[in-house]
Automatic annotation (TrEMBL):
ACT domain span: 288-355
E.C. number(s) listed in UniProt: 1.3.1.12
Record lineage: Bacteria, Bacillati, Actinomycetota, Actinomycetes, Propionibacteriales
Record GO terms (molecular function): prephenate dehydrogenase (NAD+) activity
Classification via PANTHER family: PREPHENATE DEHYDROGENASE, PREPHENATE DEHYDROGENASE [NADP(+)]
Keywords from the named record: Amino-acid biosynthesis, Aromatic amino acid biosynthesis, NAD, Oxidoreductase, Tyrosine biosynthesis
Designated name of the protein: Prephenate dehydrogenase
Protein family membership: Belongs to the prephenate/arogenate dehydrogenase family.
Source organism per UniProt: Kribbella deserti
Reactions it catalyzes: prephenate + NAD(+) = 3-(4-hydroxyphenyl)pyruvate + CO2 + NADH
InterPro entries for the chain: 6-PGluconate_DH-like_C_sf, ACT-like_dom_sf, ACT_dom, NAD(P)-bd_dom_sf, PDH_C, PDH_N, Preph/Arog_dehydrog, Prephen_DH
Signal sequence annotation: none
Prephenate/arogenate dehydrogenase domain residues: 6-282
Pathway membership, UniProt: Amino-acid biosynthesis; L-tyrosine biosynthesis; (4-hydroxyphenyl)pyruvate from prephenate (NAD(+) route): step 1/1
Pfam families (UniProt xref): PDH_C, PDH_N
Protein backbone atom coordinates (compact mmCIF):
# COMPACT_ATOMS: atom_id res chain seq x y z
CA UNK A 1 0.00 0.00 0.00
CA UNK A 2 0.85 3.66 -0.20
CA UNK A 3 1.99 3.45 -3.78
CA UNK A 4 -0.67 6.00 -4.76
CA UNK A 5 1.17 9.30 -4.72
CA UNK A 6 -0.72 11.25 -7.39
CA UNK A 7 -1.31 13.31 -9.27
CA UNK A 8 -4.54 11.64 -10.41
CA UNK A 9 -6.03 13.06 -13.60
CA UNK A 10 -9.82 12.76 -13.72
CA UNK A 11 -11.24 13.02 -17.23
CA UNK A 12 -14.99 13.63 -17.07
CA UNK A 13 -15.86 15.70 -14.02
CA UNK A 14 -19.55 14.82 -13.64
CA UNK A 15 -21.11 12.95 -10.71
CA UNK A 16 -18.55 10.14 -10.61
CA UNK A 17 -15.43 12.10 -11.63
CA UNK A 18 -16.14 14.94 -9.18
CA UNK A 19 -16.91 12.43 -6.40
CA UNK A 20 -13.57 10.68 -7.03
CA UNK A 21 -11.78 14.03 -6.90
CA UNK A 22 -13.51 14.94 -3.62
CA UNK A 23 -12.84 11.50 -2.11
CA UNK A 24 -9.12 11.55 -3.02
CA UNK A 25 -8.82 15.13 -1.79
CA UNK A 26 -9.79 13.97 1.73
CA UNK A 27 -6.45 12.12 1.91
CA UNK A 28 -4.45 14.90 0.27
CA UNK A 29 -4.02 13.24 -3.15
CA UNK A 30 -3.52 15.88 -5.87
CA UNK A 31 -6.29 15.71 -8.49
CA UNK A 32 -6.27 17.31 -11.93
CA UNK A 33 -9.61 17.87 -13.65
CA UNK A 34 -10.34 17.63 -17.39
CA UNK A 35 -13.74 17.75 -19.11
CA UNK A 36 -14.93 18.32 -22.67
CA UNK A 37 -17.35 20.80 -21.12
CA UNK A 38 -15.36 23.69 -19.59
CA UNK A 39 -18.28 24.59 -17.29
CA UNK A 40 -18.31 21.08 -15.78
CA UNK A 41 -14.57 21.22 -14.99
CA UNK A 42 -14.98 24.72 -13.49
CA UNK A 43 -17.87 23.57 -11.27
CA UNK A 44 -15.89 20.52 -10.13
CA UNK A 45 -12.96 22.78 -9.24
CA UNK A 46 -15.26 25.16 -7.34
CA UNK A 47 -16.66 22.38 -5.15
CA UNK A 48 -13.10 21.31 -4.27
CA UNK A 49 -12.74 18.18 -6.44
CA UNK A 50 -9.29 19.20 -7.72
CA UNK A 51 -7.67 21.78 -9.97
CA UNK A 52 -7.88 22.45 -13.69
CA UNK A 53 -4.09 22.83 -13.82
CA UNK A 54 -3.19 19.62 -15.70
CA UNK A 55 0.53 20.11 -16.42
CA UNK A 56 2.88 17.10 -16.15
CA UNK A 57 2.56 13.31 -16.29
CA UNK A 58 -0.09 11.96 -13.88
CA UNK A 59 0.49 8.72 -11.97
CA UNK A 60 -3.10 7.58 -12.67
CA UNK A 61 -5.78 8.69 -15.13
CA UNK A 62 -9.43 8.00 -14.28
CA UNK A 63 -11.77 8.19 -17.26
CA UNK A 64 -15.29 8.99 -16.00
CA UNK A 65 -17.11 9.93 -19.20
CA UNK A 66 -20.36 8.45 -20.65
CA UNK A 67 -20.07 4.82 -21.87
CA UNK A 68 -20.07 5.62 -25.61
CA UNK A 69 -16.94 7.79 -25.18
CA UNK A 70 -14.98 5.72 -22.66
CA UNK A 71 -12.94 3.63 -25.17
CA UNK A 72 -11.85 6.62 -27.26
CA UNK A 73 -10.88 8.65 -24.18
CA UNK A 74 -8.88 5.73 -22.75
CA UNK A 75 -6.96 5.43 -26.04
CA UNK A 76 -6.38 9.20 -26.14
CA UNK A 77 -5.09 9.22 -22.54
CA UNK A 78 -2.75 6.27 -23.22
CA UNK A 79 -1.38 8.19 -26.19
CA UNK A 80 -1.03 11.42 -24.19
CA UNK A 81 0.92 9.80 -21.32
CA UNK A 82 4.03 7.64 -21.11
CA UNK A 83 3.82 5.80 -17.78
CA UNK A 84 0.41 6.62 -16.26
CA UNK A 85 -1.93 3.75 -15.36
CA UNK A 86 -5.31 4.46 -16.94
CA UNK A 87 -8.59 3.22 -15.52
CA UNK A 88 -12.25 4.00 -16.22
CA UNK A 89 -15.47 3.97 -14.25
CA UNK A 90 -17.78 2.82 -17.06
CA UNK A 91 -20.80 0.73 -16.05
CA UNK A 92 -20.05 -1.92 -18.72
CA UNK A 93 -16.53 -3.31 -19.08
CA UNK A 94 -16.40 -5.19 -22.39
CA UNK A 95 -17.18 -2.18 -24.60
CA UNK A 96 -14.28 0.07 -23.46
CA UNK A 97 -11.83 -2.79 -23.95
CA UNK A 98 -13.09 -3.43 -27.49
CA UNK A 99 -13.41 0.27 -28.39
CA UNK A 100 -9.98 1.24 -27.00
CA UNK A 101 -8.41 -1.90 -28.51
CA UNK A 102 -9.55 -0.77 -31.95
CA UNK A 103 -7.62 2.48 -31.49
CA UNK A 104 -4.38 1.31 -29.87
CA UNK A 105 -2.19 -1.81 -29.91
CA UNK A 106 -1.00 -1.58 -26.32
CA UNK A 107 -3.59 -1.73 -23.53
CA UNK A 108 -1.15 -2.94 -20.87
CA UNK A 109 -1.43 0.35 -18.93
CA UNK A 110 -5.26 0.21 -18.97
CA UNK A 111 -7.04 -1.56 -16.06
CA UNK A 112 -10.86 -1.46 -16.12
CA UNK A 113 -12.83 -0.66 -12.98
CA UNK A 114 -16.36 0.25 -11.88
CA UNK A 115 -17.49 1.83 -8.61
CA UNK A 116 -20.83 0.33 -7.57
CA UNK A 117 -22.14 3.56 -6.11
CA UNK A 118 -23.87 6.45 -7.76
CA UNK A 119 -27.07 8.37 -7.88
CA UNK A 120 -29.97 9.24 -10.14
CA UNK A 121 -28.40 12.72 -10.41
CA UNK A 122 -25.69 13.81 -12.89
CA UNK A 123 -23.03 16.49 -13.10
CA UNK A 124 -20.36 17.78 -10.70
CA UNK A 125 -22.80 19.47 -8.33
CA UNK A 126 -24.18 16.02 -7.45
CA UNK A 127 -20.65 14.93 -6.45
CA UNK A 128 -20.04 13.75 -2.87
CA UNK A 129 -16.80 13.01 -1.03
CA UNK A 130 -18.40 10.05 0.78
CA UNK A 131 -20.11 8.51 -2.27
CA UNK A 132 -17.83 5.44 -2.29
CA UNK A 133 -17.46 4.95 1.47
CA UNK A 134 -18.27 1.30 2.16
CA UNK A 135 -19.29 0.69 -1.46
CA UNK A 136 -18.01 -2.12 -3.66
CA UNK A 137 -15.65 -1.18 -6.51
CA UNK A 138 -15.14 -3.81 -9.21
CA UNK A 139 -11.67 -4.21 -10.75
CA UNK A 140 -11.64 -6.02 -14.10
CA UNK A 141 -8.07 -6.72 -15.20
CA UNK A 142 -7.32 -8.17 -18.62
CA UNK A 143 -4.55 -10.53 -19.77
CA UNK A 144 -2.02 -7.84 -20.68
CA UNK A 145 -2.03 -6.11 -17.25
CA UNK A 146 0.97 -6.08 -14.91
CA UNK A 147 0.08 -6.93 -11.27
CA UNK A 148 1.48 -3.57 -10.06
CA UNK A 149 -0.93 -1.72 -12.35
CA UNK A 150 -3.90 -3.69 -10.98
CA UNK A 151 -2.68 -3.07 -7.42
CA UNK A 152 -2.46 0.69 -8.03
CA UNK A 153 -6.10 0.84 -9.20
CA UNK A 154 -7.13 -1.26 -6.21
CA UNK A 155 -5.37 1.31 -4.01
CA UNK A 156 -7.12 4.17 -5.80
CA UNK A 157 -10.53 2.59 -5.11
CA UNK A 158 -9.66 1.94 -1.47
CA UNK A 159 -8.37 5.50 -1.04
CA UNK A 160 -11.80 6.62 -2.24
CA UNK A 161 -13.31 4.60 0.64
CA UNK A 162 -14.46 1.51 -1.28
CA UNK A 163 -13.78 -2.22 -0.91
CA UNK A 164 -12.63 -3.90 -4.09
CA UNK A 165 -13.75 -7.07 -5.83
CA UNK A 166 -11.76 -8.48 -8.76
CA UNK A 167 -13.56 -10.28 -11.57
CA UNK A 168 -13.27 -10.85 -15.30
CA UNK A 169 -14.68 -8.40 -17.80
CA UNK A 170 -17.28 -10.95 -18.97
CA UNK A 171 -18.35 -11.95 -15.48
CA UNK A 172 -18.63 -8.29 -14.48
CA UNK A 173 -21.00 -7.53 -17.34
CA UNK A 174 -23.22 -10.52 -16.49
CA UNK A 175 -23.25 -9.48 -12.82
CA UNK A 176 -24.20 -5.84 -13.40
CA UNK A 177 -26.92 -6.86 -15.87
CA UNK A 178 -28.57 -8.60 -12.89
CA UNK A 179 -27.83 -6.25 -10.00
CA UNK A 180 -27.88 -2.86 -11.71
CA UNK A 181 -29.12 -2.71 -15.29
CA UNK A 182 -32.23 -4.93 -15.03
CA UNK A 183 -33.33 -3.21 -11.77
CA UNK A 184 -32.97 0.14 -13.56
CA UNK A 185 -35.14 -1.00 -16.48
CA UNK A 186 -37.80 -2.43 -14.12
CA UNK A 187 -37.84 0.84 -12.17
CA UNK A 188 -38.22 2.85 -15.39
CA UNK A 189 -41.05 0.63 -16.66
CA UNK A 190 -42.91 0.85 -13.34
CA UNK A 191 -42.44 4.64 -13.18
CA UNK A 192 -43.56 4.95 -16.81
CA UNK A 193 -47.05 3.75 -15.85
CA UNK A 194 -47.38 6.88 -13.68
CA UNK A 195 -47.01 9.28 -16.61
CA UNK A 196 -50.76 9.64 -17.11
CA UNK A 197 -51.88 8.83 -13.55
CA UNK A 198 -54.37 11.37 -12.16
CA UNK A 199 -53.10 13.59 -9.34
CA UNK A 200 -55.64 12.02 -6.99
CA UNK A 201 -53.94 8.63 -7.50
CA UNK A 202 -50.42 10.02 -7.11
CA UNK A 203 -51.44 11.60 -3.81
CA UNK A 204 -51.66 8.12 -2.30
CA UNK A 205 -47.97 7.46 -3.01
CA UNK A 206 -46.17 5.89 -0.08
CA UNK A 207 -42.67 4.61 0.51
CA UNK A 208 -43.17 1.56 -1.73
CA UNK A 209 -43.53 3.51 -4.95
CA UNK A 210 -40.77 5.92 -3.90
CA UNK A 211 -38.38 3.00 -3.32
CA UNK A 212 -39.21 1.38 -6.65
CA UNK A 213 -39.01 4.54 -8.78
CA UNK A 214 -35.97 6.40 -7.33
CA UNK A 215 -33.44 5.07 -9.82
CA UNK A 216 -35.85 5.65 -12.75
CA UNK A 217 -34.88 9.34 -12.38
CA UNK A 218 -31.37 8.59 -13.80
CA UNK A 219 -30.28 10.39 -16.99
CA UNK A 220 -31.98 8.53 -19.90
CA UNK A 221 -29.10 9.37 -22.30
CA UNK A 222 -26.55 7.80 -19.93
CA UNK A 223 -28.76 4.75 -19.27
CA UNK A 224 -29.48 4.22 -22.97
CA UNK A 225 -25.73 3.91 -23.52
CA UNK A 226 -25.34 1.59 -20.51
CA UNK A 227 -28.11 -0.85 -21.44
CA UNK A 228 -27.24 -0.84 -25.16
CA UNK A 229 -23.64 -1.75 -24.29
CA UNK A 230 -24.83 -4.71 -22.19
CA UNK A 231 -27.62 -5.88 -24.52
CA UNK A 232 -26.82 -9.63 -24.68
CA UNK A 233 -26.83 -10.16 -20.89
CA UNK A 234 -29.90 -7.99 -20.46
CA UNK A 235 -31.80 -9.77 -23.21
CA UNK A 236 -31.45 -13.10 -21.41
CA UNK A 237 -32.76 -11.59 -18.17
CA UNK A 238 -35.63 -9.76 -19.87
CA UNK A 239 -36.74 -12.99 -21.56
CA UNK A 240 -36.89 -14.59 -18.14
CA UNK A 241 -38.97 -11.67 -16.81
CA UNK A 242 -41.27 -11.97 -19.84
CA UNK A 243 -41.89 -15.61 -18.90
CA UNK A 244 -42.68 -14.61 -15.31
CA UNK A 245 -45.01 -11.82 -16.47
CA UNK A 246 -46.88 -14.32 -18.64
CA UNK A 247 -47.19 -16.67 -15.67
CA UNK A 248 -48.51 -13.83 -13.53
CA UNK A 249 -51.04 -12.76 -16.19
CA UNK A 250 -52.33 -16.31 -16.59
CA UNK A 251 -52.61 -16.72 -12.81
CA UNK A 252 -54.44 -13.41 -12.42
CA UNK A 253 -56.92 -14.46 -15.11
CA UNK A 254 -57.82 -17.71 -13.33
CA UNK A 255 -60.22 -18.15 -10.42
CA UNK A 256 -57.79 -20.59 -8.75
CA UNK A 257 -54.52 -18.83 -9.68
CA UNK A 258 -53.56 -17.66 -6.20
CA UNK A 259 -51.12 -20.55 -5.70
CA UNK A 260 -49.02 -19.49 -8.66
CA UNK A 261 -49.22 -15.81 -7.65
CA UNK A 262 -47.87 -16.78 -4.22
CA UNK A 263 -45.10 -18.83 -5.83
CA UNK A 264 -43.95 -15.87 -7.88
CA UNK A 265 -44.07 -13.60 -4.83
CA UNK A 266 -42.17 -16.17 -2.73
CA UNK A 267 -39.52 -16.26 -5.42
CA UNK A 268 -39.15 -12.50 -4.96
CA UNK A 269 -38.74 -12.89 -1.19
CA UNK A 270 -36.06 -15.55 -1.70
CA UNK A 271 -34.18 -13.35 -4.17
CA UNK A 272 -34.48 -10.18 -2.08
CA UNK A 273 -32.91 -11.72 1.02
CA UNK A 274 -29.88 -12.68 -1.06
CA UNK A 275 -28.96 -9.03 -1.67
CA UNK A 276 -25.95 -8.33 0.57
CA UNK A 277 -26.39 -5.73 3.29
CA UNK A 278 -24.36 -2.59 3.78
CA UNK A 279 -20.59 -2.67 3.30
CA UNK A 280 -20.90 -5.88 1.28
CA UNK A 281 -21.66 -7.88 4.43
CA UNK A 282 -24.05 -10.81 4.13
CA UNK A 283 -27.71 -9.94 4.60
CA UNK A 284 -28.34 -10.22 8.32
CA UNK A 285 -31.20 -11.91 10.10
CA UNK A 286 -31.95 -8.72 12.05
CA UNK A 287 -35.57 -8.25 13.01
CA UNK A 288 -37.35 -4.97 12.33
CA UNK A 289 -39.59 -2.99 14.62
CA UNK A 290 -41.64 -0.06 13.27
CA UNK A 291 -42.26 2.95 15.48
CA UNK A 292 -44.55 5.92 14.76
CA UNK A 293 -42.66 9.13 15.41
CA UNK A 294 -44.24 12.59 15.75
CA UNK A 295 -42.70 15.27 13.52
CA UNK A 296 -41.30 17.33 16.45
CA UNK A 297 -37.72 18.25 17.37
CA UNK A 298 -35.96 15.82 19.71
CA UNK A 299 -38.20 12.80 19.06
CA UNK A 300 -35.49 10.74 17.33
CA UNK A 301 -33.04 11.33 20.20
CA UNK A 302 -35.74 10.29 22.71
CA UNK A 303 -36.51 7.14 20.70
CA UNK A 304 -32.82 6.14 20.65
CA UNK A 305 -32.52 6.75 24.39
CA UNK A 306 -35.62 4.61 25.05
CA UNK A 307 -34.35 1.85 22.73
CA UNK A 308 -30.99 1.88 24.56
CA UNK A 309 -32.83 1.62 27.88
CA UNK A 310 -34.34 -1.67 26.67
CA UNK A 311 -30.82 -3.03 26.14
CA UNK A 312 -31.33 -3.34 22.36
CA UNK A 313 -28.51 -2.34 20.05
CA UNK A 314 -29.87 -0.61 16.94
CA UNK A 315 -28.04 -2.30 14.04
CA UNK A 316 -29.62 -0.15 11.32
CA UNK A 317 -32.47 2.27 10.82
CA UNK A 318 -34.63 3.77 8.12
CA UNK A 319 -36.89 6.79 8.36
CA UNK A 320 -40.01 7.18 6.21
CA UNK A 321 -41.50 10.60 6.28
CA UNK A 322 -44.15 12.05 4.00
CA UNK A 323 -43.86 15.83 3.65
CA UNK A 324 -46.89 17.55 5.10
CA UNK A 325 -47.73 14.75 7.52
CA UNK A 326 -47.31 15.30 11.24
CA UNK A 327 -46.02 11.78 11.78
CA UNK A 328 -43.28 9.62 10.31
CA UNK A 329 -42.24 6.03 10.78
CA UNK A 330 -38.86 4.74 11.94
CA UNK A 331 -37.82 1.17 11.15
CA UNK A 332 -35.32 -0.11 13.72
CA UNK A 333 -33.27 -3.20 12.88
CA UNK A 334 -32.24 -5.13 16.01
CA UNK A 335 -31.15 -8.65 16.92
CA UNK A 336 -34.19 -10.98 17.11
CA UNK A 337 -33.43 -11.75 20.76
CA UNK A 338 -33.87 -8.03 21.64
CA UNK A 339 -37.28 -7.57 20.02
CA UNK A 340 -39.61 -8.53 22.88
CA UNK A 341 -37.88 -6.32 25.43
CA UNK A 342 -37.59 -3.43 22.95
CA UNK A 343 -41.31 -3.54 22.11
CA UNK A 344 -42.21 -3.77 25.83
CA UNK A 345 -40.05 -0.80 26.88
CA UNK A 346 -41.05 1.42 23.95
CA UNK A 347 -44.76 0.68 24.49
CA UNK A 348 -44.43 1.44 28.23
CA UNK A 349 -42.82 4.75 27.34
CA UNK A 350 -45.72 5.77 25.08
CA UNK A 351 -44.48 4.88 21.61
CA UNK A 352 -46.84 3.30 19.04
CA UNK A 353 -44.93 0.21 17.96
CA UNK A 354 -45.61 -2.40 15.23
CA UNK A 355 -43.64 -5.59 14.72
N1 LIG B 1 -24.30 7.65 -12.49
C1 LIG B 1 -23.96 6.60 -11.76
O1 LIG B 1 -24.65 6.26 -10.80
C2 LIG B 1 -22.70 5.84 -12.13
C3 LIG B 1 -22.14 4.99 -11.17
C4 LIG B 1 -20.96 4.30 -11.49
C5 LIG B 1 -20.37 4.47 -12.74
N2 LIG B 1 -20.95 5.32 -13.65
C6 LIG B 1 -20.26 5.47 -14.95
O2 LIG B 1 -19.35 6.56 -14.80
C7 LIG B 1 -19.30 7.34 -16.01
C8 LIG B 1 -19.67 8.78 -15.68
O3 LIG B 1 -21.01 8.84 -15.22
P1 LIG B 1 -21.58 10.14 -14.49
O4 LIG B 1 -22.85 9.72 -13.81
O5 LIG B 1 -20.51 10.82 -13.70
O6 LIG B 1 -21.95 11.06 -15.75
P2 LIG B 1 -22.12 12.64 -15.80
O7 LIG B 1 -23.04 12.91 -16.94
O8 LIG B 1 -22.48 13.19 -14.47
O9 LIG B 1 -20.66 13.16 -16.17
C9 LIG B 1 -19.99 12.84 -17.36
C10 LIG B 1 -19.01 13.95 -17.69
O10 LIG B 1 -18.19 13.54 -18.79
C11 LIG B 1 -17.98 14.66 -19.63
N3 LIG B 1 -17.58 14.19 -20.96
C12 LIG B 1 -18.36 13.63 -21.93
N4 LIG B 1 -17.61 13.26 -22.98
C13 LIG B 1 -16.33 13.62 -22.68
C14 LIG B 1 -15.09 13.50 -23.37
N5 LIG B 1 -15.03 12.94 -24.59
N6 LIG B 1 -13.98 13.97 -22.77
C15 LIG B 1 -14.04 14.54 -21.54
N7 LIG B 1 -15.18 14.69 -20.85
C16 LIG B 1 -16.31 14.22 -21.41
C17 LIG B 1 -19.29 15.41 -19.58
O11 LIG B 1 -19.14 16.76 -19.98
C18 LIG B 1 -19.69 15.24 -18.11
O12 LIG B 1 -19.17 16.32 -17.34
C19 LIG B 1 -20.23 6.65 -17.00
O13 LIG B 1 -19.46 5.84 -17.85
C20 LIG B 1 -21.15 5.81 -16.13
O14 LIG B 1 -21.56 4.66 -16.83
C21 LIG B 1 -22.08 6.01 -13.36
O1 LIG C 1 -27.76 4.31 -6.50
C1 LIG C 1 -27.99 4.56 -7.66
O2 LIG C 1 -28.64 5.55 -7.98
C2 LIG C 1 -27.45 3.72 -8.73
O3 LIG C 1 -28.17 3.42 -9.64
C3 LIG C 1 -26.03 3.31 -8.68
C4 LIG C 1 -25.59 2.22 -9.65
C5 LIG C 1 -26.26 0.90 -9.25
O4 LIG C 1 -27.02 0.35 -10.04
O5 LIG C 1 -26.02 0.44 -8.13
C6 LIG C 1 -25.91 2.62 -11.04
C7 LIG C 1 -25.08 2.45 -12.08
C8 LIG C 1 -23.66 2.31 -11.88
O6 LIG C 1 -22.99 1.74 -12.92
C9 LIG C 1 -23.30 1.86 -10.56
C10 LIG C 1 -24.13 2.04 -9.51
Amino acid sequence: MNNLKGPVRVVGTGLIGASIGLALGRLGVTVHLVDADAESALMAERIGAGSRDVAGEPQVVVVAVPPDHVGAVIAAQLAATTSAIVTDTGSVKSKPLVDAGALTDDLSRYVGSHPMAGSERSGPLAGRADLFDGATWAITPHEGNRPEAVELIRELAETCGARTVELSVQDHDLAVARVSHLPHLMSALAAGTLVDAPASHLELSGQGVRDVTRIAGGDPRLWTQIVAANAPALTTLLERIRGDLDRMLIALGKDDGSGDITNLLMNGVTGAVRVPGKHGAPHTDDATVLVNIPDRPGQLAKLFADAAASGANVEDLRIDHSPGLAIGQVELAVKPASVDQLVKVLTERGWVVHR
